[in-house]
C-alpha cells in the first residue's frame, strides 16, 4: 500500500476542497468513507474465507493421518490376535491329543466320562400356563371373602352396580 503521511493527506484535502467545493465536500467525504468501509469489510471477509479453507484442508489432512494410524493399529492388533489364537490352538491340540476317546487314555473311562447328549431343539414346559403367576392365597378363600380377582374398568363397575330401572325407582313424573 501507499504510505500516506499527514502532509499528503492535507494536500489531497485542499485539492478536493478546491475541485469539489465546500458545499459538496461533506457528502462526498461520507460516500468515500462508506465505500472505504465496505471495501475493508469485503477484504476481511475474503481473508476469513481463505483462512477457513486453509484450516479445512489442514483438518482433512489430519483426519487422513488419524485414519491411517487407526488402520495401522487395527492391523497390528488383528495380526497379534491371530498369531496368539493360532499358538493357543496348537497348544490346545497338543494338550488334548491323548483325550480323543480312541482308547489310548483309560483314565476317562474309569471316571465315568460320557459325552453329553444334545438338547432338544426347543424346550416346552409341562404345565399349560406356566408363565402365569399364581398367588399364595387359594381361589376359594378369595371368593369366600369377596376379594376381587379380576380388574374391572370404571364403566364396567358403574354398569355392574347401577340399580335396575324397573326395580322400584320412580324416575318418570
From TrEMBL:
Where does the protein end up? Cell membrane; Membrane
Q: What is this protein called?
A: Sec-independent protein translocase protein TatB
Q: How does it assemble?
A: The Tat system comprises two distinct complexes: a TatABC complex, containing multiple copies of TatA, TatB and TatC subunits, and a separate TatA complex, containing only TatA subunits. Substrates initially bind to the TatABC complex, which probably triggers association of the separate TatA complex to form the active translocon.
Listed GO biological process terms: protein transport by the Tat complex
Q: What's the encoding gene here? A: tatB
- Family of the protein in this entry: Belongs to the TatB family.
Alphabetically sorted, this entry's keywords are: Cell inner membrane, Cell membrane, Membrane, Protein transport, Translocation, Transmembrane, Transmembrane helix, Transport
Which GO cellular component does the record give, naming just one?
A: TAT protein transport complex
Looking up InterPro entries in the UniProt record yields:
TatA/B/E, TatB
An example Pfam family from this entry, by short name, is TatA_B_E
What coarse category fits the chief subcellular location reported for this protein? membrane
Topology versus the membrane: Single-pass membrane protein
Q: Name one GO molecular function term.
A: protein transmembrane transporter activity
Amino acid at each position: 500500500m501507499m504510505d500516506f503521511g499527514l502532509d499528503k493527506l492535507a494536500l489531497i484535502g485542499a485539492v478536493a476542497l478546491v475541485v469539489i467545493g465546500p458545499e459538496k465536500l461533506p457528502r462526498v467525504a461520507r460516500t468515500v468513507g462508506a465505500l472505504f468501509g465496505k471495501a475493508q469489510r469485503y477484504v476481511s471477509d475474503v481473508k476469513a474465507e481463505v483462512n477457513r479453507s486453509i484450516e479445512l484442508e489442514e483438518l482433512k489432512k489430519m483426519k487422513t493421518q488419524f485414519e491411517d494410524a487407526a488402520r495401522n493399529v487395527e492391523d497390528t492388533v488383528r495380526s497379534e490376535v491371530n498369531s496368539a489364537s493360532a499358538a493357543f490352538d496348537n497348544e490346545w491340540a497338543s494338550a488334548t491329543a491323548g483325550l480323543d476317546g480312541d482308547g489310548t487314555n483309560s483314565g476317562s473311562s474309569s471316571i465315568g466320562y460320557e459325552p453329553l447328549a444334545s438338547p432338544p431343539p426347543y424346550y416346552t414346559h409341562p404345565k399349560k400356563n406356566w408363565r402365569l403367576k399364581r398367588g399364595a392365597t387359594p381361589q376359594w378363600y378369595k371368593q369366600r371373602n369377596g376379594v376381587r380377582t379380576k380388574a374391572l374398568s370404571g364403566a364396567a363397575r358403574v354398569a355392574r352396580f347401577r340399580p335396575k330401572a324397573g326395580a322400584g325407582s320412580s324416575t318418570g313424573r
